[in-house]
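Changelog-linked ticket: PRP example.
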Amino acid sequence: MKMSSMMPDVREVLISSEEIQARIRQIGERITEDYRGERPLLIGVLRGAVVVMGDLMRNIDLPCEIDFMDISSYGSGTSSSGVVRILKDLEEDITGRHVLIVEDIVDTGLTLSYLRRSLLARNPASLEICALVTKPSRRRVEIDVKYLGFEVPDEFVVGYGLDYDGAYRNLPDICVLKPEVFGAGSGG
Ligand code: PRP
């Protein structure tokens, strides 16, 4: 594949596109086994999760459905406050459904912790979490991620859905940017 024009901004490729695709294939196979006979509803959290959602759903060999939520955390800076506002709610009623939340990254865990509680209150038949990347060293609340792609160190990562200041989501690899590229911003 042609080298991305964004690569000059990249200090290091942490996880290559090939590794990501191989891992998503494995996770898709596990989900296919675990939900056999069911019609799971995958819920993506905008915006970062759209990339993993697109690849994951094509590796699940079941009649699954998808829906999206957009949420925003109150508070300032790069760290979540844990207070979350729903900007766009689901289209689907999840009562009695087998729900799988799909996230790009778990950082402090506060977003997923809130989301999990809020979705459980709607009485799904089951609720599990799939996240491509986790930063365990940043965790502030315990989160049980049943389907996990990779652990990454506490570095500012971009690519494969993760952004810096809105950009780099379309990089196929998960990368660390050169320090001169970013100042004080929010994201990944
Ligand atoms: C990211 C990610 C999670 C959240 C994780 O979203 O997609 O939703 O942060 O952080 P936490 O574990 O500390 O709560 P972000 O707010 O960057 O929005 P985006 O997906 O639109 O980039």
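Closing comment: Example verified and attached. The helical segments are 17-34, 49-57, 110-120. Residues 13 and 175 are 4 Å apart (CA to CA).
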